[in-house]
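A.,

Following up on our hallway conversation. Structure tokens first:
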């Protein structure tokens, strides 16, 4: 008898789960869709996955659809072709596009910036010690962190970092491997590779945050953000919804360790140390205050001087309403 009651209960429970799932799927199908194109192996996926897992998109009135791209360039191409409603990019790229007539808007996503790392036993203690040494740089000659380090060396230390060192450019994973193997004297890499290198004992000589402060810039200026197109109906109307969902996801990731435990397979953290450094790095990069527009303009001036037209094009002044204004709390 009890077995029969238990079996009936199981059937009811399974039926309820199927019903709830069907209702949820039906509800999501009725919501406007926001298509976002992002790197298939990038850290943005951690936040987007959190949004989907906790239903923060549907709770905010939209259905987030994630398209994984092979490169940032592919994502930008899809966005410019109106095949995606949103991407993640740096504010400089968005400013250049606005200067070309595009109605793009930048909503801050992360403060994470570059650092100059060396081996733990290296005798390099400052930028001056890099003279005659090799520096690995992920992102190419126009990498923003590299340009800011050059500006700092020229303005505060009185030497040309580019001419005094040998630069080796390559993809982030390659720079990661070369740095750990000792093939490079120093390296500048993307923040999540930097976190993993630090977990393996490499140390920071100087960070972009340090140099920014020394140059009179606001070190909390966000470099990366969600980019929306106000010319596209869904992109424009769902921008506030996505920003709110992003903020709610960040709050979860700041406060709940179990949310990170769930994400660990996606993070590809091979060791507990890697995992801890990645979690701390992400949390440290969460924006906590409004964008300082005067500081961004000064950073644009510095990048223009260091990278020239090849980096900034004809952009000399920040376009109006480039940054989406939202409460960061």
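Then the amino acids I'd put at each of the 329 positions:
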């Amino acid at each position: 008898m009890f077995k029969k009651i238990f079996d009936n209960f199981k059937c009811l429970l399974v039926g309820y789960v199927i019903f709830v799932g069907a209702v949820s799927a039906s509800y999501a199908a009725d919501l406007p869709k926001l298509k976002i194109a992002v790197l298939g192996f990038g850290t943005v996926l951690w936040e987007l996955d959190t949004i989907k897992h906790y239903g923060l998109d549907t709770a905010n009135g939209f259905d987030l659809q994630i398209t994984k791209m092979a490169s940032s360039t592919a994502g930008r191409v899809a966005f410019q072709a109106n095949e995606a409603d949103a991407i993640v990019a740096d504010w400089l790229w968005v400013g250049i596009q606005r200067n070309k007539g595009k109605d793009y808007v930048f909503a801050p996503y992360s403060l994470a910036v570059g650092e100059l790392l060396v081996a733990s036993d290296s005798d390099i203690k400052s930028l001056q010690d890099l003279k005659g040494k090799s520096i690995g740089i992920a992102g190419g000659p126009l990498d923003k962190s590299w340009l800011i380090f050059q500006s700092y060396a020229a303005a505060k230390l009185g030497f040309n970092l580019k001419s005094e060192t040998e630069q080796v450019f390559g993809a982030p994973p390659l720079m990661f491997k070369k740095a750990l193997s000792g093939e490079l004297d120093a390296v500048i890499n993307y923040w999540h590779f930097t976190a993993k290198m630090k977990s393996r004992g490499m140390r920071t000589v100087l960070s972009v945050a340090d140099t920014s402060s020394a140059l009179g810039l606001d070190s909390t200026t966000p470099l990366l953000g969600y980019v929306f197109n106000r010319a596209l109906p869904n992109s424009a109307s769902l921008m506030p919804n996505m920003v709110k969902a992003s903020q709610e996801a960040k709050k979860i990731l700041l406060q709940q360790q179990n949310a990170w435990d769930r994400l660990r397979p996606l993070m590809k953290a091979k060791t507990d140390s890697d995992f801890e450094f990645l979690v701390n790095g992400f949390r440290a990069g969460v924006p906590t205050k409004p964008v300082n527009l005067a500081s961004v303009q000064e950073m644009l001036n510095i990048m223009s001087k260091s990278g020239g037209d090849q980096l900034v094009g004809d952009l000399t002044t920040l376009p109006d309403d480039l940054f989406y204004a939202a409460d960061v709390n």
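Confidence is low (pLDDT under 50) at residues 20-24. Curious whether your intuition agrees with the design.

B.
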